[in-house]
Design a protein that fits this description.
311 residues, alpha/beta, four-stranded mixed β-sheet, 10 helices, 9 strands, 35% helix, 10% strand
Length: 311
Amino acid sequence: DMFRMLQALEREPVNLAAQMNKPGTLETTEKPAKRENPHKYLLYKPTFSQLYTFLSASFKELPANSVLLIYLSATGVFPTGRSDYEGPYDFGGVLTNNNRDVLNGETVHKRNQAHKEMHCLHPGDLYPFTRKPLFIVVDSSNSMAYKNFTNLFGQPLVCLLSPTSYPKSMQDQSQRGSLFTLFLYNPLMAFLYICGLSSMRRGLWDKSQEYLRKVYRDVGQLLTRSRSIDQAFLQFYGDEFLRLLLIRFVFCSATLRLHKMFRESRSFPETYPQLPKEDTVESPLVQKHILELAAMLDVQNLFFDSTLDDY
């Protein structure tokens, strides 16, 4: 999952030699524009202190007019009980390190079950970083804990949250990576996967990719023209990477809502703040595109082919 997200946040390399040979594309006195990729920290099963250290460094180094992107792919930690006041530490979170008995190389005594998991990253742990624009992607069985966010400082804040449950036939392949992250990385590959297609002709692949580019353009227009969408989405839409993640998220959510195997609400991704569903993930235009793509691949029987009233 980490590798796929890393690739999703990398620009395609430019073949300068090919461009130089095209007439009129590059003057001899011009230098090609430098295409920088976002700076990244990759942490594998960090302790809470390690994670917070790198989050703080990223926050400090963030240039003006920039956004901090946090991608979390981890096991969910669920609350052990209910309290009268449900705050940002009462919904659980994600487990960053599962070595529960060792901290800084030393054995730690077992804690009382009433205490919270030491290496769980709660939504409240990220509140200090909402002082700057923050874009969060959570791929976890308890991703919905991050729906209980509060924007304290008025800065743009968006969370893309994975489904918390998948159909049993999809769970068997979890070791190959998450379906949600696969949609954010390569939507066509994810589409083929949920349709049970393991291979296809190169010509059909290219045709499908071209069709998806049209779908992306239409989804982008729906996002920017919606009158009820939260402004945070539009503020992030100007960044090419975040724009692509938002568009792919809408395609993912709309596809799963139409697919006959995904019937539980827990099998659909969510956002904070909420997207206007009628303008995005339940848009008739997006649904029409998905059904046309399914028809191109001859898998239209796997999808509902009428309105949401049939649900």
